[in-house]
Amino acid sequence: MPVEVLMPALSPTMTKGNLVRWLKKEGDHVDAGDVIAEIETDKATMEVETVDEGTLSRILVKEGTVDVPVNKLIAFILEEGESESDIEENKDDTSEHVAAPSSLDISSTDKPGDHSTVDTNGEDTDIDAEEETLSSRVKITPVAKRLALSKSVDISVLVGSGPRGRIVKRDILEFISNHEVSEVKPSPQLKHSTENIESVSADEPIGDFTDHTKSEISSMRKVIAERLGFSKKNVPHFYLTIDCNLDSLFSVREKINTIVQPDNIKVSVNDFVVRAAALSLKKVPEANTSWQDDHIRQYTHSNISVAVSIPGGLITPIIYCAEQKGLCDISTEMKDLSSRARSGKLRPEEFQGGSFSISNLGMYGIKQFNAIVNPPQACILSVGSGEKRPIVSVDSSGKEVIDIATVMSCTLSVDHRVVDGVVASSFLKTFKSFIENPYLML
Questions:
Q1: Is residue 416 flagged as an active site residue?
Q2: Helices 421-436 and 247-260 sit at what angle, rounded to 10 degrees?
Q3: 230 three-class SS
Q4: How many of the other CB atoms lie within 10 Å of CB of 246?
Q5: Which of 177, 273, 276, 415 holds its CA 20 to 30 A away from the CA of 324?
Q6: What SS3 state is found at 8?
């Protein structure tokens, strides 16, 4: 019987993916373990291996196809002695597959649906530019509103091309030209009175937005928008910032790098940050938690997710059990994870999970910032750049003096449902102690 090649589930939360390209063509012989295709998930482009031997006889889903459902039939492999007629005999039974319901809880990590855009622009020059808001999401100019009423256009399905997303006349005209009359449904929003109208002054500029480009929204960008949009809207954030003196850390780091230079290892400030955060979570385990809707989960190990910028977005490879690893181990592992993240070679378990996140923008000269909590995690540490600042210290005689030190600002973004202010403060106090006394991490 022909072997059915199905769209694989490459992560626990994957419901669909993009078939980037086929690495084998119809008629090619394949052995078990051969890479036959590349699939783009919400986080990376991953290679798919076949577990069967035979001939790749028929490709049903072309490369470049987006949003292919998991378990959909994408190709057939014929085993020895089989022919195309065997495919036809089983076609009715195997032409389509539906993914089985997952027992995993994916409420906070489901992939978002497709977000379409309308590539239009226009000006309402026959009346003033007053804008009417029919809901918290839909904005429309009066002339576009009258045109929509007269043509029974449902404005809830439109994306405005005017300033601040308002629907303008050209949006209505383009919608009408692209749809049959039977597809245009009356808009209940336009039939009711427009109470709670938000007006914009008549002299607000409409502008000309014809000079622009449009790019498709990648799966990764959709997931980032969905997850962080959910977090910012539904997670009650609060933020705490602390300053850390880096002078002792720089001194210890220089000595370590001199010793490990023959092994081609170079420990970075970020490696110290990961290690300090991991040890701090061990001392303040209440911060190493996540919100699970019906319970709070407290983790035994410090599994640190570190934000890494990659083309089209970012990904958070994980240093597992970081509290058990030395600085050199963390440095080596982080370099390997970052390299494979940028080339799309991470395995799902290497970037999904984690109990605590770190986002470091210090190398870009950012002094301080507030990152968004990555649910279901309760905390993310935002790390700024080290810079020379005046500080007050006490000399040997007990007199206060002003010194110059290299200071780094770190901000902890916290989910208040899980972690309270005292716990977050205790974590930062412990973290600061490790950073300013780096020999405690050795």
A1: yes
A2: 50
A3: helix
A4: 20
A5: 415
A6: coil
Which tokens hold the place of 49?
Answer: 């291996």
Whether this prediction's pTM lies above 0.85 is answered by: no
Contacts of residue 263, defined as CB under 8 A and 6 or more positions apart, other chains included, come to 328
219-441 folds as Chloramphenicol Acetyltransferase (3.30.559)
Segments of 119-228 assigned E as strands: 132-133, 139-140
Q: How many CB atoms lie within 10 A of CB 62?
A: 10
> Which CATH topology does 3-94 take?
OB fold (Dihydrolipoamide Acetyltransferase, E2P) (2.40.50)
The tokens describing 374, both together, are 């990555």
Question: What residue spans define the domains of the chain?
Answer: 3-94, 116-216, 219-441
Counted residue by residue, the chain has a size of 442
Whether 412 and 434 have beta carbons less than 8 Å apart is answered as no
Query: What b-and-e string marks burial along 205-228, b requiring 16 or more CB atoms within 10 Å of the CB?
Result: ebeeeeeeeeeeebbbbbbbebbb
Rounded to whole angstroms, how far apart are CA atoms 360 and 385? 8
Residue type, 57: S
Residue of 97, 237, 301, 416 marked catalytic: 416
The pairing of strands 356-360 and 304-306 is parallel
Residues in a beta bridge with 17? 68
35 vs 48: CA distance, rounded Å = 5
> Tens-of-pLDDT digits for all 442 residues of the chain?
688 888 888 776 778 888 989 999 998 999 888 889 988 877 677 888 887 888 998 899 999 898 899 889 999 898 877 877 777 766 544 444 433 333 323 233 333 333 333 333 334 443 334 344 444 446 787 777 878 887 788 887 777 777 667 788 888 888 887 775 444 444 554 444 344 434 444 444 555 556 778 888 887 888 889 889 999 999 999 999 999 999 999 999 999 999 999 999 999 999 999 999 999 999 999 999 999 989 999 999 999 999 999 988 899 999 999 999 999 999 999 999 999 999 888 888 899 889 999 999 999 999 999 999 999 999 999 999 999 999 998 888 889 999 999 999 999 999 999 999 999 999 999 999 999 999 999 9
